[in-house]
Amino acid sequence: METAGGTELSAGICKAATLLPGGGDILLLTDGQVYETETIITRARKAGVRVHCLGIGSASQDRFLALLARKTGGASHFATPRERVDEAALRLFNAIGAPAAEEVSCEITGMKQADFAPDLPELVRVNEPLLIFGSCTGSDNGNLQLSWKGGNRTIPIPFPVKQDQQASPASDVSKEAETPVPLGETLKLVQGARITTDLESLDTDAPETQRAAERHRKRQEKRWIALAEEYGLANPAMSLVAVVERTDDRPGAVPVTRVVPVGMPQDTAFESYFGRSGNIVSRTRNALIMNNVCACAPPPDFSLAHRMFGRQESRKRISTDAVENRLLDRLFELTGYLEADGGLPGPDLETRIANTLAGLIVLRRYAHDTGEQHFDVHAQRMSAFLDAQDINALSPNLQKQVQRALTLLDAGKIPAENCMETYLQLGDNPGNTALWKWIEVAVK
Asked: For residues 321 and 306, what is the distance between their CA atoms, to the nearest angstrom?
């Protein structure tokens, strides 16, 4: 494959699709610029595969990846600069499973000329919102009737639309009813952008013959122009140019250049850019961390106590982040070792049960503390492995300990608060004796 410095995504997706002749799911991770995006979407749709996209870094094309996932029935996620890629990949991988709702459809009753645009997705995945864009000409009360495979729901839509008390002040006002509509014009722009994006993807399905392709082009151009005039957005058929005139403008004058200071994110890892010590940039970094300020914030009042406690708080925050990263590293390593039967490896049954039970306890505590569900599937597999084992081969004391721990966990018992920290202190190879003692303390 000759990439010539680019990200050759089309060939990779086509090759993966050949391994799934009956259709399936492809997990795509990319951090680069992609070319011929329309062709990639067309080929993926024709291959009948669902592409789930993870964009990494600012170079990834979030708009294209979101469209590729949406048009193929997949999910998408974009890792922020400070986000762990492995955690983001696990979150996306969990979304590949069974969707939350299939065969989704909706209609509006009681409103004049109600219409939806763009079309609704056929399925909704777990932890993924369902976005419905629509409009109507009247101001009568109505109902949104939402239905899916195995269920339905009716949502009343009253008029006038009332602004949530916790929301920011309304920026738009309906001219007809003089009713505050929060972010009404902004939502219309978002709707227009989604329709524009979907229409762009349809351009790749143009007919093969020249005459038919020309007719298709003219029809598309008319749709583009109408869409741009309605929503005020640029597209392949219409460009929008904003001209700003100032009273002090003079022909031929040199533009005025102003230096604008910008702030750095509060948790910026300066070591990643400037090194750890020994230069003025590092001392500046320490001052920013110590004083907890950025360029756009007013300087705090100087005091010795502020310097002392500010430094302690920054060190405490850095220490907490380090512990969390160590814990996540250990959890990813632990779940990566799961064997086909759902248990962790070991030279004998006792070691496998001890390792798996300890790992299950840590995952339960992590889910309780964070509210995250990244490792739920792993925890279910580990629990099924433990339930399927014949513990009669263990000593009577260990049999009682395993039964007691599993009974408490099945009943919803939350492991000890500090069990994750003490688990990390055990190290990589703690041995069965240390693990059984830890399990006894962790689940009381």
From this structure: 22
Class of domain 9-95: alpha beta
Question: Residues 6 or more apart from 30 whose CB is under 8 A from it?
Answer: 7, 9, 53, 54, 55, 56, 60, 65
CB 44, CB 13: distance < 8 Å: yes
Whether the per-residue pLDDT at 166 is higher than 60: the answer is: no
Contact 44, 53 (CB under 8 A): no
Cα(360)–Cα(386) distance, rounded to whole angstroms?
A: 10
Cα distances from 122 to residues 22, 49, 131, 136, 194, in angstroms, run: 20, 15, 12, 23, 16
Range from 82-91, 137-146, 286-295 carrying the lowest mean pLDDT: 286-295
Q: How far is residue 55's CA from residue 48's CA, in Å, rounded to a whole number?
A: 22
- Would you give the distance in Å from CA 14 to the centre of its chain? 25
Is the Cα dihedral 282, 288, 294, 297 positive or negative? negative
Q: Residues 390, 396, 399, CA angle at the centre, nearest 5°? A: 45
Q: In what order do the strands lie in the sheet with 105-109?
A: 105-109, 142-148, 151-157
Q: How far apart are CA 68 and CA 14, in angstroms?
A: 14
**What gap in Å lies between CA 177 and CA 139, rounded to an integer?**
8
Strand, helix or coil for residue 372: coil
Which among 289, 427, 412 is positioned nearest to 358, based on CA atoms?
427
> Domain extents for the chain?
9-95, 99-159, 178-236, 264-300, 321-442
Residue 441 — pLDDT band, cuts 50, 70, 90? Answer: very high
CB 29, CB 65: distance < 8 Å: no
Residues 190, 193: Cα–Cα separation, whole Å:
5
At 404, the pLDDT band (50, 70, 90 cuts) reads very high
Q: Alpha carbon of 416 to those of 76, 305, 334, 337, 421: distances in Å?
A: 36, 35, 20, 24, 10
Buried b (16+ CB within 10 A) or exposed e, 192-216: bebbbbebbbeebeeeeeeeeeeeb
**Cα–Cα nearest to 36, from 273, 203, 223:** 203
Q: Alpha-carbon distance 240 to 230, whole Å?
A: 13
| Residue 438, amino acid | W
